[in-house]
Amino acid sequence: MKTVMIVAGESSGEFYGSLLAASLKGIWSDLRIIGIGGERMREAGVELLSGISSSFGLQEMLPSLMRNLKTFRRAKRAMVEFCPSVVVLIDYPEFNLRLGRVAKRYGVKVCYFVSPQVWAWRKRRARKMKEFVERMAVILPFEEDIYRKEEILCEFVGHPVMEEIERVYNTGDIPIPFQGGIRRCLRIVQGNPVLSLLPGSRPHELESLLPIFVEFVRAFKSEYSDARFILPLAPNIERKRFEVILGILSGEGVKVMEGEAIKALASSDAAVIASGTATLQAALLGTPMVIVYKLSPFTYFLGKALVKVKYISLVNILAGKEVVSELIQHRACTEGIMEEMRRILHDGEYRTHMLSAFEEIRKPFLGKQPSQRVAEMVGEIAEWKY
């Protein structure tokens, strides 16, 4: 029986895994897909071996260490038990680079989808990946050259975020005009302005940013009394863990939703976003934003020493310059966010410059079908006929 394993470690990768699973099933309907992921992958037909258990930074990683070890053992056993032809590793390098070496020992071919950020830190990983990676499918245009220099077969396939955006725009239940139609579909009472708040998907991100969002919402409402706020929670978040502070935000008039980040951003005049995939979502949608981020002091200190990039957001990295403001650590505060929001909403030149930069960022991603292309790559690696 044709079998593929897909391994994702956090919310965004799990979403990409679900899109890939659907594309694989669309080509080979009898394909068995096993993997590590979340509910979206399960709904796409993946037999889950374990749920995702992402972590970030040393202090944040320790509580989930034992769970990760158990998940790793399950993945190793599955390679022997199910004999997949190909394992697709999605980002999550601390886990997946080790698993890729195991796959090589067991004779399982590896397709790496969504590159580790070798351009930011630990650049030698790209060279080491040549030992076990059959094909690389990268989602950022500049990553292709990095792997080709290491003589690894690599292709820029586009970004799955564009697939999600296209799906939202092509849905039939949203009336025109689009922004107003989405607001009505989300049952957002018309206000001016409408802001999205995206605190990230990792527990430490929510713990550090949600209290800041409470203060910001209160301050913003004092200046813009008819403002509306949307907070789309990333899937796979343990909502009970944050019930109290989410309740406070709801009491302040914030519409808290499960998922729907694309719809929330598309309906918004501006956004406050934790650094991550959501920054690219906003840029591709043309939603002005400010980036906020906080880490534990120790993790931040360590990151400053190890990470060799000038910016933390994908938007600025892709632009090669500061297009959006990055408020990090002590700068991630109500005063800083308020100042930036006033510029976005009232400085026409500043807003136009930001939106023009977003247009340039969008160009390389147009016309790509990443999930379909990676599904085809899997078939090519396994030497399956269509």
Detailed description of the structure:
This protein has 386 residues and is of the alpha/beta class. It has 2 domains: 3-158 and 368-382, Rossmann fold, CATH 3.40.50; 174-365, Rossmann fold (3-Layer(aba) Sandwich), CATH 3.40.50. The chain has 18 helices and 13 strands. The strands form 2 sheets. The chain has a 7-stranded parallel beta sheet, sandwiched between helices. α1 (11-27) links the parallel β1 and β2. The two termini are 15 Å apart. The model is unreliable at 55-61 (pLDDT under 50).
Short description:
By secondary structure, the protein is an alpha/beta fold. The protein has helices at 11-27, 39-43, 58-61, 65-82, 93-105, 124-129, 143-149, 160-170, 178-185, 203-223, 243-251, 261-266, 277-285, 297-306, 314-319, 334-346, 348-362, 370-382; strands spanning 3-8, 32-37, 46-51, 86-90, 109-113, 135-138, 154-156, 194-198, 228-233, 254-258, 270-274, 289-293, 326-328.
Alpha plus pi helix count: 18
Question: What is the strand tally?
Answer: 13
Q: Largest beta sheet, briefly?
A: 7 strands, parallel
- CATH secondary-structure class of the largest domain: Alpha Beta
- Portion in beta strands: 15-25%
List the uncertain runs.
Answer: 55-61
Number of domains: 2
Helix content range: 40-55%
CATH topology name of the largest domain, in short, is: Rossmann fold
User: CATH superfamily of the largest domain, called what?
Assistant: Glycogen Phosphorylase B
Global shape: globular
Record keyword descriptors for this entry.
386 residues; alpha/beta; Rossmann fold; 2 domains; seven-stranded parallel beta sheet; six-stranded parallel beta sheet; globular
